[in-house]
Design brief:
The structure holds 3 protein chains of 3 kinds.
Chain A lengths: L1 H20 L19 H9 L4 H10 L12 E6 L3 H8 L9 E6 L6 H11 L10 E7 L3 H5 L7 H4 L9 H6 L9 E2 L7 E5 H8 L4 H7 L3 H13 L12 H6 L6 E2 L2 E2 L3 H15 L11 H5 L9 E4 L1 H6 L2 H6 L4 E4 L10 E5 L6 H13 L1 H9 L8 H8 L14 H8 L14 H16 L5 H16 L7
Parallel strand pairs in A: 1-2, 1-3
Antiparallel strand pairs in A: 3-10, 4-10, 5-8, 5-9, 6-7
Chain B lengths: L1 H8 L2 H37 L18 H10 L15 H32 L5 H12 L7 H10 L7 H4 L6 H14 L3 H8 L4 H12 L1 H16 L3 H6 L9 H9 L9 H36 L1
Chain C lengths: L10 H29 L2 E6 L4 E6 L3 H7 L7 H32 L8 H9 L6 H12 L4 H10 L9 H30 L2 H9 L4 H12 L1 H16 L3 H5 L7 H4 L2 H10 L5 H26 L1 H12 L1
Antiparallel strand pairs in C: 1-2
Classes of the chains: A alpha+beta, B mainly alpha, C mainly alpha.
Chain lengths: 473, 305, 314
């Protein structure tokens, strides 16, 4: 079934690309998203008869998408974002912006919450904005996506022709779906977060650095404790920060932080805090922040840190000291529990004057395999496309020098099915629960404050963020 | 104590010895101050020479060997297909030109109009003068954070988004600069000068432009450079106004863009530090020339006084 | 301000000279500022759940909330305390330091060589953006940074600067000090240079000591500029925001380095954008600034009278 959809897509894209060259010729109103049935005769024949030939496939990929009838579309396509990453991808991945449409990037750096502040104001005024200034697509992160996906300011993208691709990872669609089940956007990336360990320390502690064997040794939290003790006996520490496992627990919670308008810590949080305290008290973890220089120093040649936790973007871009001083001495495995960390979504703004372009861009950045390969290989992210992931996971020659040649795509790919997203458990204030809550707990874990005082400091922050609309103890 | 000693003896020798001691002390003090002041710059320069991976987190006073590489990434971007980064390239030289336009115009407007306003209040007697002065002092004390939203929607309504006007024109009303000019006039501008100029048949604007302004040279030089640097380093307002074209953006926005790249985690810090380094060079040069004016101002003041 | 001088019947010129300032202020700043005050009487914000803005008149509720004590604590006063502590820690040494530097530079007796060099150097820390200081300094004060390497070598233990309330405040005050002492020095220097040089020459001929020249001539004549420096430093200090904001790492004990403006910023940039509360905060900060500035002004303003009589005497 997946194959069929893909074949149809490729074929119709090929046909439409011809139509695109031959401007004004065919007045096909099909977008590249039509999966079957309603494509033109040529396309349906080719899709039903057989798999597309390699040539046709290559042709379609080369053309990219961006080939559709632009009649009725606005001339300016406004994308709102907070940095230049997605712009770089659109410009360099081979995506073809159709003639007659220009993308205008509204880039508002997220300093001091400016991005969301300006974006929200603009979304509320969208109806009064001139056509060329109306927001078409805007970007949002996992920690606050719910605010937009649940709101009237975003629109149903399936109606525009966006497909919920079977090649995409399920949780990425759930995260962009409103509480009443309407899909409002998509993501080009997927962010399974792995257990990143130091090979030389693993050899010393466990006698092996083989990812499968290490995974076996740390497959549960209890087993991780045992390894942490062994590591300590050898003069190492498991983590540099007690916050390392926060997202693992919080991600897998079965209940929300907020029930009936009141905040309360839940079991997953308490488990994490108990664990974190245990790690600190037993000398299994240092007491630094996730981004601290002290943690980075532990990745140096004489560093003692056995592991940390993070997705592809973390080990590719945020472990500078390790990339510099100890490359090749690292590897990843699933860890005790699957979870995700971060992620950016494309959301469709209500009132856009470019519905076709929205659909085309969203489909391109989920289903166009040429683009998704760019995301994997050039952007060093983990793409939201199982076909591309499979291709690289199965490639015996593919691997990262930083991970001693390990194929990280394979490890991460195996974790994706266990990632959970239950919209009912998320709130529009997730950002404060994922950052301010653990960060305040750090002042308790490092001994500066009592647990009560640390919690009180978080309540103050919660009041500021929610304007008192969420009660607490 | 030492005053008494001085009066009693009056010896030039001990006086000289005293000055020598003071001088030695001064040089030692200045040496320490120099070390202190150059320290942040030193770290910055060292960081421009370090490898982008080495720069994440760990601190070092030992220079690296990546100056050329960082410079090339900054100017040309990193196009190595095997590089993890494929860095964002920002038009940094264009950004410096933009910043020069914005900071240059706003510092000229700020100093000129603040001097003019201060002069107006210092020299003339008119109804509401006291109110005007107190009003400006009061608005100087109002925190401006909350009103930024109102400012942005105002600029939107005026159709001035993505232009430099909202970054330059408001510089005309700079309460703190006005206050400085007023205090400066108070301490060193005798009104007899104006009267003398009038006797000579000078009109009021001419008196201000040709006589008062030159006498305010040290104050103007000081505020010129302060206003220039403040505008050059301003991130907040430009980031709200200049949203679209990279070619329009000023240096702080470009630096922020570099450092927030790739899921806000993985900036190429070599490029970030190099950009910061490049961005202070023009200001150092400008300051060097303006500071000469501050010194010359003394000489003029001495003659006039 | 109440300087006596012959009034010149050129009143209209006064208006002409000050008009540009007021026109620009009214166009670009007055309305946003007035609306800040206006909304301080409203419960105004944004509901991220319904994605709607709301606005409801509440009279003085916001002020009452800000000023009332709950369980013996009041956030406004404790953040005001933090702000003052960090300001005093940075500003007092800075003022003394800058005064000393300015005197050294302008002293005719000392005739310091290489002035251009020193004057350029002291100003350089201000050329670096506040945001960049976090990049440069957090690593410096970290447990593995050079300062702690030194401390460890001497005492055998590290000191977690940013995790300790006084350590964090000290670091913030230090960064503010480094960033701004050059500016203050230059302001004072320009002020001293504006003083009539003949006064110094006369004092020298009369055989006054360096200390006498400083206390009897430099200091009183510099008073208007000192008033300026003190008041702008106070205003800047009460509005302290960027340095404590950027020097914060997540194990910084938040309640000890949070300033008034940081709290204000949290309120208006948080998910529910408390503009009403933010407006009331602004008004309170404004009131505190005004009150303290008035005090500074009153305590310092006694000296300028002496200055004037001296000037007249000459």
């Amino acid at each position: 079934m997946k194959k069929r959809i893909l074949a149809a897509l490729v074929a119709s894209a090929a046909v439409l690309s011809l139509a695109g060259c031959n401007k004004g010729g065919s007045s096909s109103s099909n977008s590249t998203t039509s999966s079957s049935g309603n494509t033109s005769t040529d396309a349906s024949t080719s899709s039903t008869t057989s798999e597309p030939t390699v040539d046709a496939y290559a042709e379609a990929q080369k053309a990219g998408t961006g080939v559709f009838d632009t009649a009725g579309e606005g001339k300016v396509f406004n994308i709102w974002c907070w940095n230049g990453d997605f712009k770089k991808y659109v410009e360099n991945s081979g995506y073809k912006v159709p003639d007659g449409i220009t993308i205008k990037w509204n880039e508002i750096p997220n300093e001091g919450g400016a991005y969301q502040k300006q974006l929200d104001a603009a979304l509320l005024k969208q109806a009064d904005a001139p056509a060329d200034e109306k927001i078409d697509i805007f970007l949002a992160e996992a920690d606050y996506i719910l605010k937009y996906s649940n709101a009237k300011v975003t629109q149903d993208v399936k109606k525009l022709g966006v497909e919920q691709w079977a090649t995409g990872y399920d949780y990425t669609y759930k995260a962009a779906t409103s509480a009443d089940g309407v899909l409002k956007g998509v993501s080009w990336q997927c962010n399974p977060s792995a257990f990143i360990y130091r090979r030389s320390i693993a050899r010393d502690v466990l006698g092996t650095d083989d990812p499968d064997k290490v995974q076996e040794a740390i497959a549960t939290w209890d087993k991780l404790d045992e390894v942490a003790q062994k590591a300590k006996d050898k003069g190492y520490i498991m983590f540099a920060s007690p916050l390392e496992t926060y997202r693992t627990f919080a991600n897998n919670s079965k209940v929300s932080y907020v029930n009936n308008g009141k905040f309360a810590t839940h079991d997953a949080f308490n488990q994490w805090l108990d664990q974190a305290k245990k790690y600190v008290d037993n000398g299994w973890s240092l007491t630094y922040d996730l981004w601290a220089a002290e943690k980075a120093a532990q990745m140096d040649v004489d560093g003692k840190m056995m592991a940390c936790i993070g997705p592809a973007w973390y080990f590719n871009f945020c472990m500078g000291t390790a990339q510099d001083k100890t490359p090749g001495d690292w590897a990843i495995c699933k860890g005790p529990q699957a979870h995700f960390w971060g992620g950016t979504w494309l959301l469709a703004a209500e009132g856009s004057d470019n519905p076709k372009m929205i659909a085309d861009l969203m489909n391109a950045f989920t289903a166009n395999e040429q683009i998704m390969e760019y995301i994997l290989k050039d952007a060093n992210e983990f793409p939201n496309n199982k076909n591309v992931v499979k291709k690289y996971a199965e490639d015996p020659n593919f691997g990262l020098a930083f991970l001693g040649g390990q194929n990280h795509i394979k490890v991460l790919g195996d974790m994706t099915d266990d990632i959970v997203w239950d919209t009912a458990l998320h709130t529009v204030y997730d950002q404060t629960f994922n950052e301010d809550l653990p960060n305040n707990m750090l002042t308790y874990l490092n001994g500066t404050k009592s647990k009560e005082d640390a919690m009180k400091a978080f309540y103050d922050k919660l009041d500021d963020v929610t304007g008192g609309s969420i009660a607490h103890d | 104590m030492d005053t008494n000693y001085y009066n009693k003896t009056g010896e030039t020798k001990s006086q000289r010895a005293q000055i020598t001691t003071a001088r030695v002390f001064s040089y030692i003090f200045l040496g320490l101050v120099t070390v202190l002041a150059l320290f942040p710059i030193l770290i910055l320069v060292i960081n421009t020479t370090r490898d982008r991976f080495a720069l994440q987190g760990t601190f070092s006073l030992i220079p690296g060997t990546s100056f050329g590489e960082n410079m090339s990434h900054t100017i040309y971007g990193d196009n190595d297909p095997n590089s993890l980064f494929n860095t964002t390239q920002v038009p940094i030289l264009r950004g410096m030109l933009n910043s020069l336009i914005v900071a240059g115009s706003s510092c000229l407007l700020t100093t000129y109009f603040s001097a003019m306003t201060a002069y107006g209040i210092h020299v003339y007697d008119f109804k509401g003068k006291k109110f005007a002065f107190n009003f400006i002092l009061i608005i100087m004390m109002i925190p401006t954070q909350v009103s930024s939203v109102g400012f942005v929607s105002l600029v939107e309504n005026m159709k001035l988004m993505n232009t430099y006007a909202p970054l330059i024109i408001p510089a005309i009303a700079a309460p703190a600069v006005f206050f400085y000019m007023k205090q400066y006039l108070e301490s060193s501008f005798p009104l007899e000068v104006v009267e003398a100029a009038r006797v000579d048949g000078c009109n009021e604007f001419r008196t201000f432009n040709m006589i008062a302004l030159p006498m305010m040279k040290p104050a103007i030089a000081v505020q010129l450079i302060f206003a220039f640097v403040a505008s050059w380093n301003n991130f907040f307002t430009p980031s709200l106004i200049l949203r679209t074209e990279d070619d329009l953006k000023t240096v702080p926005i470009l630096i922020q863009k570099l450092s927030s790249s790739v899921l806000s985690g993985g900036a190429d810090w070599g490029q970030v530090y190099m950009t910061i380094f490049l961005s202070i060079i023009p200001v150092v040069i400008i300051y060097f020339f303006v500071s000469k004016n501050i010194v010359e101002g003394v000489a003029l003041g001495a003659v006039k006084g | 301000m109440n300087k006596k001088h012959k009034s010149i019947s050129y009143a209209k010129w006064g208006y002409i000279f000050i008009i540009p300032f007021f026109v620009v202020y009214i166009i670009f700043s007055l309305i946003p500022t007035l609306s800040t005050f206006y909304y301080s009487f409203f419960n105004k914000g944004f509901d991220p759940v319904s994605f709607e803005e709301y606005e409801k008149f509440v009279g003085f509720d916001n002020y009452v909330k800000l000023l009332s004590f709950e369980g013996g604590t009041n956030r406004f006063f404790s953040y005001f305390g933090n702000t003052m502590i960090m300001w005093v820690l940075g500003a007092v040494p800075q003022l003394l330091f800058s005064l000393l530097l300015a005197v050294i530079f302008t002293s005719a007796r000392l005739r310091i060589k290489g002035q251009r060099f020193f004057k350029t150097v002291i100003y350089m820390p201000n050329l670096i953006m506040a945001a960049s200081y976090a990049l440069l300094f957090i690593g410096l004060f970290s447990d593995v940074g050079p300062i702690n390497v030194l401390i460890k070598a001497i005492s055998g233990d590290t000191f977690r600067f940013l995790a300790d309330p006084w350590g964090a405040r000290g670091v913030i005050a230090f960064v503010n000090f480094i960033m701004w002492f050059g500016n203050t020095t230059i302001l004072l220097m320009a002020g001293i240079m504006g003083i009539d040089q003949s006064l110094f020459e006369a004092a020298q001929i009369d055989g006054a000591s360096g200390m006498q020249v400083f206390t009897k001539i430099t200091l009183p004549l510099l008073m208007p500029i000192l008033v300026y420096v003190a008041i702008t430093s106070l205003i800047g200090g009460l509005q302290m925001f960027d340095v404590p904001q950027i020097m914060r790492v997540s194990d910084t004990p938040t309640q000890d380095t949070t300033t008034m403006i940081m709290w204000l910023n949290n309120l208006i940039t948080g998910a529910s954008r408390q503009y009403g509360m933010g407006g009331a905060m602004s008004v309170l900060i404004f009131a505190v600034t005004g009150g303290l500035s008035f005090l500074v002004f009153k305590t310092m303003v006694t000296s300028p009278d002496k200055v004037k009589s001296k000037k007249k005497a000459k």
